[in-house]
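Data deposition worksheet. Section B asks for the primary sequence of the deposited chain exactly as it was used as input, without tags or linkers unless they were present during the calculation. Section C holds the resulting structure in token form. Section D is free text for depositor observations; keep each observation to a single sentence. Incomplete worksheets are returned to the depositor.
Section A, Depositor: J.P.
Section B:
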Amino acid sequence: MRIRIYTMSYRQISGVNMNKKILLIIVFPLLFSLTSMARDWVKFKIPEAKCGDGTDYSVYYNPQNSKKLLVEFMMGGACWDLMSCYGGNIRTWLHPIIELPSFSVLSSNDSNRSPFTKHSSLYLPYCTGDVFAGDHKFSYFLGIKANHVGHSNIVKTVKFFKENGIIQFSKLEELILFGTSAGAIGTLIHSKTFEREVSSKTKKVIIADSPGLHFGKKFWKKFTNPMRENFQKAFNNINVHIDFDDGLVADQMDKVCDQLPDWNIGFLQGSQDLIMTLLFGNITPAKHRELVYGPRGIHETTKYKENCASFVADTKMHTFLLLNKSSQIKAGGITALDFAKRVYQGKLNRSYR
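Section C:
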């Protein structure tokens, strides 16, 4: 099955209600992109993998170079109760993506923007509301169920592509994990999922665009106990131990750098990120900025790590590398896109502010 990217007009958007507009902002910003930048995607249904609503989970693959692979984790919020999963306070998307996968600047076919145009690309949709960390099913109010199985979906996807010989992970020369927002967290917690399959000689890169990590103290309280348990287990894989009484996670990213010494890792984050503050993070943009630039923030905790770097722009922008315009935002004299390229090239051990 071949998939192409289509556009949606402003008139179509203006007729959508407010909650659906929030979803369009969080989940589908790339519907506005040009078709000339799209790859040809082949759709694969992953056996036994499910979206949050119980329907089948599928991923998209564009074969280019069998030795080089770009894996993109889709963005898309999170949910914690019936209203945020399905109702009037909806904060994520628990259904198969609508007709097509979105794509980023990095997974585009524009060689002026992306250094990965000759890489094969695996696109991982997000439809479980659990930042790719979940491994359980939950029955919310009125018995309405959600499959929070984002973590197991990715494990099943890697197994499917390996066992069917579609991707020969052990022969990869380069592996790039890229994600935005919820997908950025996915790149971190699934680094070990992919690392187990590749050679020790494989060049490995993580580009985590706007993972948040600087949340308010009450951030974790809204999630169910099974979800918190899944979060803890997933983060433990990268040596991060969550304090559910403190939403600040960025101060442990130095441990991630230490846990993944063979990876080039780059973090991008807006100092006053509106989505990761007012919509999800239980924190004001001003307090978020204070944490980001503080001694426990992403700017400081990764600054002196040889295999890590951070890009912290003083902006309210959420995500940088989805659209060409936002990829040109600057911090420390370079653009977000230039930063991603430097991480790929191994130019690390500093923070851009």
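Section D:
The chain is about 25% helix and 20% strand.
The longest strand covers residues 41-50.
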